Amino acid sequence: MQILFKQNILKMNQHNFHSSIIRAYDIRGIYGKTLNDNDAFFVAKSFASFLKKNGKNKISVACDGRLSSPALKAELIRGLVESGLEVIDVGLGPTPMLYFSVYHLEMDAGIMVTGSHNPKDHNGFKIMLKERPFYGEDILGLAKIAAEGDFVTGQGSIEEEDIKEEYVDRMLSDCILAESESHLLDEVDSFKPQKDLRIAWDNGNGAAGDIMIRLSERIAAEHILLYSDIDGTFPNHHPDPTVPENLVALKKVVIEQACDIGIAFDGDGDRIGVMDNKGEILWGDQLMVFYAREILRAKRGSTIIADVKASSVLFNEIAKAGGKPLMWKTGHSLVKAKMKETKAPLAGEMSGHIFFADKYYGFDDALYAAIRIINIVACSKDPLSLMRKTMPQTHSTPEIRIECSEERKFAIVEELKVNLKQSGVVFNDIDGIRVSENGGWWLIRASNTQPVLVARCEAKTKKELQELKKSLKAQLQFCQVEIPKELR
Questions:
Q1: pLDDT tens sequence across 460-476
Q2: Based on the domain organization, do 354 and 410 belong to the same domain?
Q3: CA 42 – CA 75 distance, rounded (Å)
Q4: Are residues 222 and 81 in the same domain?
Q5: What's the CA gap between 398 and 267, in Å, rounded?
Q6: Across-strand partners of 472?
Q7: How far is the C-alpha of 88 from the C-alpha of 50, rounded, in Å?
Q8: Closest Cα partner for 110 from 467, 361, 428?
Q9: Cα–Cα separations (whole angstroms), residue 184 to 169, 177, 178, 359
Q10: CA gyration radius for the chain?
Q11: What beta strand segments (E) does 4-155 contain?
């Protein structure tokens, strides 16, 4: 009878997550369907057990502005405290503020409650260790701990701490001042760029709103702020700056009010979108050219990392500026791990994740990336639209997302690999398939965060681009995938 009782207690403490929410880089699902408050409690119990078994005890937590985030965070904190951890709640804000808190408050780890750039009914958890990213097998390990009910217990503690001003101070410490203002650093609490600027900002009602306001108040420029209030219903547009339709309002302001630059953030503030003074979008790989040139002037010979979706122009420009270009897998955790391995001062993705280890911590922070591009614009005699013309011009598709079930997307990529090998086509398979042909390249890969295939083509001429699109279309037809409008 006693044995049966113990088994029942164990079974009560076991927890199985919905299989779809355990992702490569985080835990993410649809709130009320595949992800519930109870999941937050067991994410906490599982991660706390991992930490305690590795001699770690201190963790900070934060959440974005989604309607479900407060309830998820409350259950997360309950699970962490009941596991005996020392918890600091840094409140509502962007994901990079949570990352910053781990370093600033000298914590062992951090968990961010966020749905990132996904639809408003989605939510989840981004998890980090201070010394390295937490992803892949680590996340699978949490699911195993939960399923086995192998939890630690204890009496922890919870404190609240507002670090917003410290976070803003840290970012602004790398804001370049006009020479005439540099002697005032100890006397004033604002920062003046080297030339007068008019800057448009679009928060998209995401979690970066409060920090965006504080930054704009302390940079001596003219600022136009769009949708700065944090609203988890995203009433104005979806907070994903990689989609041109989401930048329509920003473009209108940039053109009508003659702004020098437009800056947009995703839902949790770790991805940046940038627009030049003519209202043209600078994609993540184009931004990286400017960042790389700036860093390589002082750190010639450094490795600069970009993901497999990036333009060949970026890799060529890194080499031309004296750097060592490295093409790597897409995914913020994968990129951060590769940065630590190669000691790269800079890495970036087409999606707008930009990672600075030059002067900064090496995590993806769109607000800090905004400071760095503002510096670059402020230090140039030319407007941003002319600066971009220093890059070789190519013709490319945007990032094409092709809806595909979670179960099918990876299988399709494997089928294509077999077909290409049988056809004698040479390709790079570091992450999906990247084929060089017809004066350019095309890419197809399975997204690790959404039920989609991601495709892209780039060529030197419009005619060559059409040929690449035909090649990619033929491969997709081979796998009986619905052809997206961008390839028709």
A1: 999 999 999 999 999 88
A2: no
A3: 9
A4: no
A5: 20
A6: none
A7: 18
A8: 361
A9: 15, 10, 10, 22
A10: 23
A11: 27-30, 58-63, 86-92, 109-113, 122-129
Mean pLDDT computed over every residue of the chain: 92
The answer to whether residues 330 and 379 belong to one domain is yes
For residue 356, give the DSSP letter: E
**Among 101, 116, 302, 333, the one annotated catalytic:** 116
Instruction: For the chain, give the number of residues.
Output: 488
Number of helical H runs and strand E runs in the chain: 15, 20
**Mind listing the pLDDT tens digit for each residue in 228-263?**
999 999 999 999 999 999 999 999 999 999 999 999
DSSP 431: S
Q: Are residues 172 and 127 in the same domain?
A: no
Task: Please give the single-letter amino acid code of residue 266.
Answer: D
Q: Which domain holds residue 451?
A: 395-487
Q: Say whether 116 is catalytic.
A: yes
Last residue of one domain, picked from the residues 334, 358, 390? 390
What is the number of structural domains in the chain?
3
> How far is Cα of residue 418 from the mean position of the Cα atoms in its chain?
31
Neighbouring CB atoms inside 10 A of 2's CB total: 6
pTM comes to 0.92
CA 394 to chain CA centroid, Å, is: 25
- Return phi, psi of residue 86, to 5°: -90, 115
| Residues of the chain by 3-state class (helix, strand, coil), percent to 5 | 40, 20, 40
